[in-house]
Design brief:
Elements: H1 11-16, E1 29-32, E2 37-39, H2 44-53, E3 58-60, H3 64-67, E4 80-83, E5 93-95, E6 99-103, H4 108-112, H5 121-128, H6 141-146, H7 154-158, E7 164-169, E8 172-177, E9 195-202, E10 208-214, E11 225-234, E12 237-246, H8 256-262, H9 271-288, H10 294-309
Parallel strand pairs: 2-4, 3-4
Antiparallel strand pairs: 1-2, 5-6, 6-9, 7-8, 7-9, 10-11, 11-12
Helix pairs in contact: 9-10
Length: 318
Amino acid sequence: MRYSAAAPVTPDSAMRSAIPPKCEGNACMAASDKRTHVYLPETLPELLQLYRRKPLASIYAGGTDLLRGVTKAEFALPTEVISLQEIEELHRISRTERYLEIGAAATVARILQIGSNILPPAFYAALHSIGPPGLFSLATLGGNICSVDHVYSIAPLLSIMDVRYEVRRQGHTRWVPASRFRDANGAPALAEGEILTRIRLPLEHWNVQVFRQLGTIHLESTSPLIFCALGKTTKAVLDDFRLTFCGSSPILYRNRELEAELVGRKLPLPAREIDAFLHGVSQGIERTEMPLTPLQLHRATGLTRVLLARMGQPDSID
């Protein structure tokens, strides 16, 4: 593929270029002009070596975040782009009795093919919420997780599911809990030259699983909210409970101390305990100055109230 002033880049041509020609070596330049160089590493070691040398290059998997909001017939690509299309390891999905391991460049469509009988119900719902079905074959799990400006549908849920991320750079690998993947400002905590390569998802049973997305996350005018909760109950006792939500900002709300206060409580929860929990949520948001609009806060506390009132029932929030 080749970009030039005579052949301007359009959203369609950029999408077509996601299936690039073959090339030799990690230094191969698939396309170039005075504005953009697209590199096509074919193995993970080639990618890590290339990204060490070019840490400011943009990583291109499905391109949905890169093209989001593009309305003109022509648009500017970053100066240097590294495509993940040819790296088989990043598209791989494997399953054991305890985990699903998903390559960061696996598309939503491929993950959904695993089936709703295997995927956790909340995760299955979160995958479907990423956009219209036409995006499923383009959008990748890693792209959803690593978005800088917003937290999209899947990342908040993974942060409460004991999911771990494999992060690699040349000569080094580390596993990071999803709950610690973002810094205090909500940005992915990746060092220079590091890239998310694999997601390990526990196939743990939660008999309460809730995922809700209200509004459109990158349109503040819709007062968007992503709301996720997990719970385990045994014989009318709450054994474990986790809750997180966010609005347009990439900063997630979670309060483990409040969650711990509910663990061991008999169900159904009395109204005074629900009120106390919601009071703690509101205080925590006010104390941390979490950027939520009044409507977003109203939505979050309303969903939480309904969930806690119905806790232990088969359909906790439907």
